[in-house]
Design goal:
alpha/beta, Rossmann fold, Helicase, Ruva Protein, domain 3, 9 strands, binds S-adenosylmethionine
C-alpha cells in the first residue's frame, strides 16, 4: 500500500513492469505519491470534471488525480510499456480511468471527454510547450478546457508568467496572459524526479478567461508578437517592417513609440497594435 491508495508504491510498479526511464521520451518520473497528490490539488476541485492527462507514465500523477477525486481521467501515453501499470490503476478505480496509447500531438481527445474539462500533465519540455501553444490558440474562445495544471522546466514556467521588462517576457507570456490567468503554484527540485533532470521544475496553473483580456484578432496578434520577439533586440519599427509599409504610423496610432523594443511593450499595447494593423490592412 502506498498511502494515497491501495496500489503498490511506484518504485515497485516500475521494477515489476520493467519501466526503465527512456531519455528519448523525456521520462523523468515522479515516484512520491504525496507529491503527485499535492500537484493534483493545484488543479482545484475536480469532482465534477473530466481530466485529460498527457503522459501518465507509470501513473504517479494519475493516481494523485484519482485519489483527489477527479470524476474521470483520460490519459494519453506514447510508451506502450506503461499500459499494464495503468490498467492496474484503472481496475482500482472502476469506470474512472481510460487510457489511449499514442502521441498526444496527433490525437484529438475531445470525443472521449465530457465538459467541464481540466488538463493536467508532467510532460517533456518540447511536447509540453507545443501542446500549451495549441491549447492557447484555438480558433474559438473559450476553449474546451477550463484549467491547465502543467509541469515545466522552471525556465519555461517563468516565461509563461513573465511581465514586460524581464528577459523571460515574450511570445509565451503574451499568448498565455491574453486569454488566461497564469501563475506558478509549485516549485520542484531535480531530486523530486527519477532519474533527476539537470534543472529545476515548476507547476504552472492556468485558468481560461471567459474572453480575452483585450480585444484583438488572434491571428494578427500571434503574427505580430512572433515577429516582434523574433528580433527582440531591434526597435519595433525595424522588427515589424514586414508587417505593413507604414508600420511607424501604425505603431504610433497604437500608442507605441517606433523606437521601443518588444520586451518593453505591454499586452494591452500589443493588442492595440494588432487592432491598428488589422484596420490598416482593410
Ligand atoms: N506523468 C508521469 C510522472 O509524472 O511520473 C510521467 C512523466 S514523464 C516526464 C513524461 C511522460 O510523457 C512519459 O511517460 C512519456 O512516455 C510520455 N510522453 C512523451 N511524449 C509523449 C507524447 N508525445 N504523447 C504522449 N505521451 C508522451
Amino acid at each position: 500500500m502506498s498511502g494515497i491508495d491501495d496500489l503498490p508504491p511506484l518504485s515497485r510498479v516500475i521494477a515489476s513492469h520493467g519501466l526503465t526511464a527512456r531519455k528519448s521520451l523525456g521520462q523523468n518520473f515522479l515516484l512520491d505519491l504525496n507529491l503527485t497528490a499535492k500537484i493534483a490539488r493545484q488543479a482545484g476541485d475536480l469532482s465534477n470534471m473530466d481530466v485529460l492527462e498527457i503522459g501518465p507514465g507509470p501513473g504517479g500523477l494519475t493516481r494523485g488525480l484519482l485519489a483527489e477525486g477527479a470524476r474521470r481521467v483520460l490519459a494519453i501515453e506514447k510508451d506502450s510499456r506503461c499500459l499494464p501499470a495503468l490498467a492496474e490503476i484503472a481496475a482500482a478505480y472502476p469506470g474512472r480511468l481510460s487510457v489511449i496509447e499514442g502521441d498526444a500531438l496527433r490525437i484529438d481527445p475531445l470525443e472521449h471527454l465530457t465538459p467541464p474539462i481540466a488538463i493536467a500533465a508532467n510532460l517533456p519540455y518540447n511536447v509540453g510547450t507545443e501542446l500549451l501553444v495549441r491549447w492557447l490558440t484555438p480558433k474559438e474562445w473559450p476553449p474546451f478546457w477550463q484549467s491547465l495544471t502543467l509541469m515545466f522546466q522552471r525556465e519555461v514556467a517563468e516565461r509563461i508568467v513573465a511581465l514586460p521588462g524581464s528577459k523571460a517576457y515574450g511570445r509565451l507570456a503574451l499568448l498565455a496572459q491574453w486569454r488566461a490567468n497564469a501563475r506558478i503554484v509549485l516549485s520542484l527540485p531535480p531530486e523530486a524526479f527519477t532519474p533527476a533532470p539537470k534543472v529545476s521544475s515548476a507547476v504552472v496553473h492556468l485558468t481560461a478567461l471567459p474572453e480575452p483580456r483585450f480585444p484583438a484578432d488572434a491571428k494578427v496578434l500571434e503574427t505580430v508578437v512572433a515577429a516582434a520577439f523574433n528580433q527582440r533586440r531591434k526597435m519595433l519599427r525595424a522588427a515589424l517592417k514586414g508587417q505593413h509599409p507604414d508600420i511607424e504610423s501604425i505603431l504610433q496610432s497604437a500608442g507605441i513609440a517606433p523606437t521601443e523594443r518588444a520586451e518593453q511593450v505591454s499586452l494591452e499595447a500589443f493588442c492595440a497594435l494588432a487592432r491598428a494593423l488589422a484596420a490598416a490592412r482593410q
